[in-house]
Amino acid sequence: MTPLEVVHAFLAAAEEGDYEASLPLLTEDVEYQNMPLPAVHGRQAVRETLEALLPICTRFQVVAHRELASGDTVMNERTDRFELKGEWVDLPVAGVFVVRDGQIALWRDYFDLPTIMNKMV
To answer: What domain range is 65 assigned to?
Structure first.
């Protein structure tokens, strides 16, 4: 798979909450960071982070608007959609992924934290 295909497969599995499909697409030493929160390292830490965040919503969707891939780097501008309390909350996100040997080694998402936090209270 190309780096772009790896990212697409990962995000599609994440939408479904399918950790058995998504986590193998990450390197063992992956670095994941929701900016401005601290980074986590390793597949298990990513799983724990996602398991803490995603169950808050009843559904999760990723809508990619623009993407580019150059070498091992994939960047996308997207809207992550969370269904919270029966209402969709749209979170504009800019994502950066670095793929190494067919797996994501670095994943950073840049977004405005209060946009989602204000809807969770």
So the answer is: 3-120
**Catalytic residue (one of 18, 29, 90, 109):** 109
For the question of residue 29 being annotated catalytic, the response is: no
Q: What is the pLDDT of residues 49-93, one digit of tens each?
A: 988 877 778 888 999 999 999 999 999 999 999 898 888 999 999
Per the structure, how many domains does the chain have? 1
What is the model's pTM?
0.92
pLDDT digits (tens, 9 = 90+) for 10-59: 999 999 989 899 999 999 999 999 998 899 999 999 999 988 877 778 88
- Helix, coil or strand: residue 73: strand
Backbone phi, psi, residue 38, to 5°: -65, 150
Beta strands in 5-72 (DSSP E): 26-35, 40-41, 59-70
Cα separation, 2 vs 104, in Å, equals 11
Q: Tell me, what CATH number does 27's domain have?
A: 3.10.450.50
List the catalytic residue out of 18, 29, 72, 80. 80
Tokens of 98: 């670095």
